[in-house]
Every structure is written in structure tokens, then in C-alpha cells.
Amino acid sequence: MKNLILLFVICFCSIFYSCDSKNKILKTETANDLKEISFITSDSIKIYGDLYEKDKSSPIILLFHQGGSNARAEYDSIIPKLISQGFNVLAIDQRMGGQYYGGYNRTVAQIKDHIFGNPYSYCDAYNNLEGALNYVIGSGFTGNKILWGSSYSASLAIKLGNNHQTDISGVLAFSPASGGSMKNCLPDPYFESLKIPLLIFRPPNEMKSENSKTQFEKARRFGHQTYAAINGVHGSSMLVKERVGADTSKAWEVVNLFLAKFKND
């Protein structure tokens, strides 16, 4: 009996440790200088994130997750690929997020009213993205700064890119949201005034929508790049083979070609 109890304890601890490890900062072997960071927004919300730093003169990608998600879970297989290409990376947990893809959203977890539902809207998260940009500028990163958004954060990234064109070098927008909840922060009005490189991605099922087709046409009319993935799912996960259930190499080729222009010579 004692042996059975001991075996149960050992198995439980092993499972717990395995699960708990997935909630820790992304595999530390992907970067020598890695730290959890935080900053305070203009309306006093503490935003948590993970900074993967190569050196401050290298380009940096600011990663923003989709609704119901969090930085570590959504980007766990994407960040190592970006680091391997010489990019610094900052991935934050916005105030609109959760446990999608696993893990948890550190920012949402510490919002006082989250027990009764998140009191914020998707548009309210704009200053989270702006705060991340201010953080990397204030921390002395001098290389090119690239925004990367997923779903609602893709729309907000386009807005941020438009409003800070002297600080930002380019924007990648994966499935930029444009539903009713985004009516006060739609991305389309910025296509004409945005002069820095923009690349918009959508998976095949989203391209069946007239709204998506119209968005692509408008973006191209003002000189922006669009890509309808051969395979794909919503948001940045269209780059993750396990989530797509099919090859994602073509989509990565397009991403890497876009990013190549921002690398240090």
C-alpha cells in the first residue's frame, strides 16, 4: 500500500512539474538574455511581458496576441524562430486575453474586477501596445521596431503604426479584426495615411468574407502588401503547423521576406 501511495505521489509530481513548466517563461535556451518585464499604462494598468534581448542595436519585434489568449502560449513556437534570425522580441499580455492555447494571461489575472468579467473592450487595449512601444524606446533599443498583431491586436497594431510612424519601421497584421466590437478602432481608415511597410495575412476561410476581400483591396490600393495563406487558421496561429494541421512553410517564407528588410546589415 505504501508503495502504491509513493508511486502515485511521484507520478503526480511529474505531471505537475511538466504542466507547470509550460507556464514558465519560454524555453530559456532560446535567448541568453531573457527577462520578465512590466510597465504601467496611462490608465494605471500593470502590463506583463517577456523580453528576449540579443542586443539593443538589433531590430526588435513587438508581439501582441489575439483575444482570449496570452503571449507565452500563442507565441511559444514562433518566438524561437524570430530569435534565431537575430531579432530581439518583446511579447506582452494585453488586458484583453485569457487561457486560449494554454497558460494564463498575467495582466488579466491581476485586474481587480476580472472575477466579475473583464471590464475593458478590445479598443481599450490600444494603450497596452503603445506602452510596449514606449517601453522599448525608453529601454534604449535603437534598432528597427516592427509591430506584430493577431486578430484584434492586429487592428490596433495598424493604428499604432500609423500614429508612430517615426518610431516604427513596419507592421505585420494577422487576421485584423473588424467586427462590431472593433467599431471604434477599425484598421481600414489608416491604410491611406500609413506610409511604413504593412503586410496583412488572412487564412483561406476568412477570404470568403466580403469584408476581408474589401479590406485587402483597400490595403493594396494604398500600396500595402497582402497575403492569403494557402493553409491557415485565425491570427498568428496560421504560422503554427500543429494548429493549422497542414504545411505553413509558404506563409513563413512571406513573413521572412518581409522581415528581411529590417535586419541589420
Describe this protein's structure:
The protein has 265 residues and is an alpha/beta fold. It has a single domain, classed as Rossmann fold (3-Layer(aba) Sandwich). The protein is built from 9 helices and 8 strands. The N terminus is likely disordered.
From the structure above, extract its key features.
265 residues, alpha/beta, Rossmann fold, disordered N terminus, AB_hydrolase_fold, Serine aminopeptidase S33 domain-containing protein
> What gyration radius follows from the Cα positions, in whole Å?
19 Å
Q: Return the structural class.
A: alpha/beta
CATH architecture: 3-Layer(aba) Sandwich
Number of strands: 8
What is the top-level CATH class?
A: Alpha Beta
Low-confidence residue ranges: 1-25, 27-31
List the helices and strands and how they pair.
Blueprint: H1 2-22, E1 33-40, E2 46-53, E3 60-64, H2 71-74, H3 79-84, E4 88-93, H4 106-109, H5 126-138, E5 145-150, H6 152-163, E6 170-174, E7 198-202, H7 210-221, E8 225-228, H8 241-244, H9 249-260
Parallel strand pairs: 3-4, 3-5, 5-6, 6-7, 7-8
Antiparallel strand pairs: 1-2, 2-4
